[in-house]
Design goal:
- The complex is a heterodimer.
- In chain A, the strands form three sheets. In chain A, strands 3-2-1-4-9-10-13 form a seven-stranded mixed beta sheet, with helices on both faces. In chain A, strands 5-6-8 form a three-stranded antiparallel beta sheet, with no helix packed on it.
- Chain A is globular.
- Chain A has one domain: Rossmann fold, CATH 3.40.50.
- In chain A, helix 3 (48-61) packs parallel to helix 5 (90-101).
- Chain A contains seven helices and 13 strands.
- By secondary structure, chain A is an alpha/beta fold.
- The model of chain A has no long low-confidence stretch (mean pLDDT 90).
- By secondary structure, chain B is α+β, with helices and mostly antiparallel strands.
- Chain B has two helices and six strands.
- Chain B has helices spanning 4-17, 25-56, and strands spanning 76-78, 84-89, 99-102, 112-117, 139-154, 159-174.
- Among the domains of chain B are: 27-57; 70-174, OB fold (Dihydrolipoamide Acetyltransferase, E2P).
- Classes of the chains: A alpha/beta, B alpha+beta.
- At the A-B interface, helix 2, helix 4, strand 7, helix 7 and strand 10 of A face helix 2, strand 4, strand 5 and strand 6 of B.
- Strand 7 of chain A pairs antiparallel with strand 5 of chain B, so a sheet runs across the interface.
């Protein structure tokens, strides 16, 4: 009996430290041909959700544990269509920017692919997620990866994660102390609560709008009385 | 004293009867409110036009746009074979979608509000041939294409709208009258059963 704690301690020491993934998700930009003449015109700059995610990656790298890895998921179709519109190869540019930070984008084309990428079992190939952060368009009920890109002022059903889709994300894919943040507008008004209830992990989200126009990490829009909640 | 009272009445009565009437509440309101009612629009009007100008100020962008007036939208574009619908461009502020679409024999009351999706390299949206998206407002087209099996999410009204995938169109010119019916509005999902769980304020 006396040997039991010693054996347990030895077995714990012999186990390698469990690796985890930090997942950063970048949504896509709107098309200027839809947004150009609107009063609240979105995405004058194509790379809001790229630069912010990469700035965050640099911050996170400072405290990264030895075996942990940052996974950067990028919604590809919107960058392809914005490339066609602006005649600039944005995929190439974002890959170059990612390379500077030591990240390679992992592209997804619809929400089902995203759900597959978020499915984890804790194995070496599919380590659990200890942090998830979203950079992109959203409202209180949806993450909208292709907002105002294929249809004017809206997003297509296969390309949004609606609160009704959250049951497709398993809480077991996350570590028990995983932290989640949505840097989209209005996520804290409903999405983050539903995430907490359905996925089982708290998600910090904004009450009010978020502003990416200064570059780097998004801020709460000034003058609207916004706040971060979970 | 007996003579003084009738004398006082004789002098005072005409003064009371012939006095100018006191202003009524309604007349005083109108006289006071009218300047207030008229001044704000005159104060607002310039700011609205300034906003308008500010939004439409030409900026250096790489978006390639045609500069044709509305009358010069191509009469026919893309694949114009197969089933067709009559469509009328309708713009609703802060609302996702292109306008109303109906079959030939249907009335506009039966029309469906749609978000319009172009087909790459076959048919772009009609307004992309015009200087601004508003330039074909209340124009009618014959649309060729299909309704998509998926919907579009309208974030302002929080609802789903039908999507029409455009393969080709024919211009039919300006509509006789504007469709004033509001687009549909219903919540994208049921009542939030987690609403009783209020968000926790994140303290710095």
């Amino acid at each position: 009996m006396r040997l039991l704690p010693i054996l347990c301690g030895l077995s714990l020491l012999s186990l390698p430290l469990q690796a985890h993934d930090i997942v950063l998700i970048s949504g896509g930009p709107a098309l200027r041909s839809f947004e150009k003449y609107k009063k609240a015109s979105h995405d004058k700059y194509w790379g809001n959700f790229i630069d912010s995610a990469l700035a965050r990656a640099e911050e996170l790298k400072k405290d990264l544990k030895a075996d942990d890895k940052i996974i950067w998921l990028v919604f590809r179709p919107s960058y392809v269509s914005r490339t066609d519109e602006d005649q600039q190869d944005y995929l190439k540019i974002l890959e170059e920017r990612g390379f500077k930070v030591g990240l390679t984008p992992l592209y997804f084309d619809n929400k089902n692919q995203l759900f597959t990428l978020l499915r984890r079992d804790g194995s070496k190939e599919k380590p659990k997620i200890c942090r998830l952060e979203y950079f992109g368009h959203s409202n209180k009920k949806c993450w909208m990866f292709d907002y105002s890109n294929r249809v004017d002022g809206g997003a297509l059903e296969p390309l949004v994660v609606h609160v009704d889709d959250l049951a497709k994300i398993s809480g077991s894919s996350f570590t028990s102390d995983a932290e989640c943040v949505s840097y989209g507008c209005h996520s804290g008004e409903e999405f983050s609560q539903r995430w907490r209830m359905i996925v089982g992990r708290p998600m910090v989200g904004a009450v009010g709008k978020t502003d990416y126009s200064d570059g780097g990490m998004p801020k709460l829009s000034t003058g609207k009385g916004g706040s971060w909640v979970y | 004293m007996g003579l003084l009272i009738p004398l006082f009445v004789w002098i005072a009565m005409p003064a009371v009867c012939l006095a100018s009437p006191l202003p009524t509440r309604s007349s005083s309101d109108t006289t006071e409110a009218s300047p207030q009612a008229t001044t704000p629009p005159s104060a607002d009007e310039p700011s609205e036009t300034q906003d308008d100008e500010e939004v439409r100020k030409p900026v250096e962008e790489k978006v390639v746009r045609a500069t044709l007036p509305a009358a010069h939208t191509p009469a026919k574009h893309g694949d114009t074979n197969g089933e067709s619908w009559i469509a009328q461009r309708t713009m609703v502020d802060d609302y996702c979608g292109w306008g109303w679409v109906k079959k030939d024999k249907e009335s506009w009351r039966q029309a469906r509000w749609v978000a319009l999706e172009g087909t790459p390299r076959t048919c772009p949206l009609p307004h992309t041939f015009l200087p601004r998206p508003v330039d074909d407002k209340n124009y009618q087209y014959r649309f060729f294409g299909t309704f998509a099996p998926y919907r579009a999410y309208e974030p302002q009204a929080d609802m789903w709208v039908d999507v029409f995938i455009l393969k080709g169109f024919m211009s039919l010119g300006p509509a006789k009258e504007e469709i004033r019916r509001p687009p549909p509005a219903q919540a994208s999902s049921g009542v939030n059963r987690f609403a009783d769980r209020a968000p926790n304020l994140l303290r710095p």
